[in-house]
Design goal:
Elements (H helix, E strand, L loop, with lengths): L8 H22 L13 H17 L2 H15 L7 H19 L5 H10 L9 H5 L22 H10 L9 H30 L9 H16 L11 H10 L3 H30 L1
Helix pairs in contact: 1-2, 1-3, 1-9, 3-9, 4-8, 4-9, 8-9, 9-10
Amino acid sequence: MITGVTTQKNSLGEIVLIFTMFLVWDYFETRPAGAGFRLSKIPWSRLMLLIMGGWLLHLSQSKTALLCTIIGVVLIVRSGLLVSKTIDRLVLAGALSLPFLLFTSRQFSSVIAPIVGAMGRNMTFTGRTDIWDHITSTTVNPLIGAGYWNFWGGRGGFAISEAMTTIVPNAHCGYVDMYLDGGIIGLILLFLLLVSCGSRLSRNLRVSTDPHRYKRMRFAFLVVVVIYNLSETTYGRVSPIWFTTLLMIVDFPMIKATVKKGRTALQRGGSAALSTRPALVNS
């Protein structure tokens, strides 16, 4: 297992995913306004880092991180017909529907199989469904769950590890682990958060101009997080993706209000200067 600076290959894929998205965003944010995309114009330092990131994703064999990196980069660099409010809504709706499709995959295996194949996995998600088969509506209190991270360190988690004859630290699915932590109430609150944040980010997205690439980055990362948690757990877990997700979805109204006041003051000051200029010249 290639782990690099981490202790597990999926953790290596996780940080490469985050850094790659930020490197791509940084390039588009700092290039001259109106400049077209040219591979030769990418600074060699960023290009080398991107190549190293692709190489590490290949070495780690973290298929989920690789797929999410491709999706995130495409959502940041897209242009032309792919840039519209309609596309944003379709992408968000499609991402949010995937968890429901995942848990009905046995009934719709022919539909989801190409998606799973693109992730480099089979219909067992590399043994993940074996873990999910041990979790039913009676495993924990279906309404409130077992509490934050209480299941896998308790009798329930020990029973699953014993039945599978291996140590199972989590469900390898953010939505299953959210059910174990908070039950149906936890899942409802999670989806309300994702829907509200996704709608807000897509509504405020102005994808036609480069100065708003950070808004595009925020939207892309939210979509990536929804997909990443299909086969890994980062919701409510202290990890780089968890921390980055908070940065992407949290708004700072006080800072926005301060910036808005500053702009208004500058505009008023400029208008006042223009109105007094003729009087000074006449005097």
